[in-house]
Protein: Dihydroxy-acid dehydratase
Organism: marine metagenome
Amino acid sequence: MKPRSHEVTDGDNRAPARAMLRAVGMTEDDFDKAQVGVASSW
């Protein structure tokens, strides 16, 4: 299940985002998984 991850990874207009994610080490299999972000403002 990819509730909102598809907004970054799917479609022709998201190619620059996928290129950036590949540059930091994501593989093609990783794009099929949900992406989770963790942030702290402490």
The helical segments are 6-9, 15-23. The chain is about 30% helix and 0% strand. The CA atoms of residues 5 and 35 lie 6 Å apart. The mean pLDDT is 85.
